[in-house]
Amino acid sequence: MKTPARRGRGTRGLSRDEVLDATLDLAEERGLDAVSMRGVADRLGVTPMALYRYVGDKQGLLDGLVERLITELPDDDPGLPWQDRLRALGAGIREVARRHPQVFLLLFMRPTVTEEARRARDTVQALLRSAGVPEDVVPPLQRLLDTIGMGLAASEANGRFSGDAADVDRVYDLAEDLLLTAIERYARE
Amino acid sequence: MKTPARRGRGTRGLSRDEVLDATLDLAEERGLDAVSMRGVADRLGVTPMALYRYVGDKQGLLDGLVERLITELPDDDPGLPWQDRLRALGAGIREVARRHPQVFLLLFMRPTVTEEARRARDTVQALLRSAGVPEDVVPPLQRLLDTIGMGLAASEANGRFSGDAADVDRVYDLAEDLLLTAIERYARE
DNA sequence: CGCTGTAGATATACGCCGTATATTAACCAC
DNA sequence: GTGGTTAATATACGGCGTATATCTACAGCG
User: Fold this and answer.
1) Which of A72, A109, A140, A170 gives B170 a disulfide partner, CB atoms 3.0 to 4.6 angstroms apart?
2) For residue range B3-28, what is the model confidence (pLDDT) as tens digits?
3) Are B180 and B83 a contacting pair, CB within 8 Å?
4) Residue B126 Cβ under 7 A from any strand C atom
């Protein structure tokens, strides 16, 4: 047995998924500031430079993190009434933001280009269509919806809403009310 | 003349305002990543350690930056109709975000505690009151307003809205429409 | 005027970061 | 086996935040 450790020199054993798993764990445990090439590599029992093959560079690592965040969102169930689907989506976003407060902010910095992001966008647009929103309003309204959901979740998770939990809930209730009536109004026209 | 340079060793010549001015300039010219203790110090012709007396540490520097961002918002004119005041505020936020895209994201990470932030919050609340929004709805609605404005501005300035300018404008129009009718609805009750 | 305490700056150094470059070791096809 | 390729390591560089120690110009006081 020449390779006592799990991975020898030229052995292919690492993978992009493994790297991102470790990164997400690290971010959850010790915050985004603790996410460094060296930190992730240590957690994998590997040299920092080994990561570059799989994520390109540090920015690529963060992009991968964002990608993962989106996949943590709950699946949409098109069978439900659109109101319930909207609420479920909101709750999902809120939970993801709570789990990864600082990482969540990265969502504001990247355009919707990855496959996962596209899928999430299409989900919301399908939801709006099934609510009866006319086609030309769907794209901008989807963007507005995204922004409000992400903005609220980011604010709460990062402590910008400093009051007690009940106050924060009121803001969410208000947003929900506002959005539901807006969608209904556009659907009626 | 023993002190050829403007600031000799023990001369008191630096100030917190001077430091933050230089920081904001640097951030605008070369982005947030270029904002480092060394970078700011260089721009002031000073040693990095000299900054610590005025801003505490790097986080304090960034907090000061956020504070400055808020003061860049346009002044509110209570004489105007509340609809116009709301639009002016939105345009102001949008412009600040455009000028300092990355710095703007820091707003999501800090609670509303500084004097400047409090003033901005009170402005929005006063606006809502003068629109006739009942007292118990004012605080949560103000938070929602803030979040939507900041979320849209942050998204646009950081490139999350990838489409052309007309598409982005449509989102803002939609938000404005949505908020105006919502405020009117709450004011009527 | 000289003395001294102190405030405001510098000098130096440490450990961490991202990553460019060069090297090495395991595997594959022939 | 042997050569080429792939996936890892080793090393090094410049920049970062900042702890610590030092220095120096001034203020207050006799």
Assistant:
1) A140
2) 333 454 555 679 999 999 999 999 99
3) yes
4) no
